Amino acid sequence: MSTKVRTADTRERILTAACEVIADIGFEKIRMRMVAERAGVSTALLHYHFDTREKLFTEAMTHSFANTAVDLERDAETAPAAVILARILRNLLPTDPELHQDWRLWQELWVRALRDETTRVFAVDLYAQLHGWVSDAIRRGITSGEFTPTDVDDLSTLVLSLSDGYGIRLMLRDPTVTLDTALTSIWRHVSTALGLPAAVPTE
């Protein structure tokens, strides 16, 4: 195995471990030693790759974000636009253990963004990328004739806002909200705006 490959593998293990530890106990409580132990590396090696907790946190968020992007891009050019858009909606909610962990990371990001300007700018940039995922899927469907034309930016903002609102209540285990009701409610707004069937598409 080349040095470059080993380095990439080590960074991957560290970032995966960082995501897990931050989601488990929160950013304010983590110590670099905890992440190193979870990743199976020395603290010195961890500091070699990430010299501060803040840099590790930012890279961990980016890592988590990138993994979600890979799933969203799967067969994106060949699947029906409605299927891709529904997939995005599912990925915006805590629909499985991995996305539940991602949501815990997002909640840590929101808290830090309220107190730290660098983190705030980073969070706004990540939201811009989320907006891009949703709006690109909508535009693709409009261009192909699958969707009724609409105000793309306005609908994308609504989708993200609804996803955040329902996602928070799901994370709080609010007994009045379920994944099915959240997804169905969000899709109702989407389907009305885009002239689509009321049923949420499956893969």
UniProtKB/TrEMBL annotation:
PROSITE patterns (alphabetical): HTH_TETR_2
Keyword match Metal-binding = no
Q: Which residues bind DNA?
A: 31-50
- Fetch the Pfam families from UniProt: TetR_C_6, TetR_N
Protein keywords: DNA-binding, Repressor, Transcription, Transcription regulation
Per UniProt, residues of the HTH tetR-type domain are 8-68
What is this protein's record name?
Answer: HTH tetR-type domain-containing protein
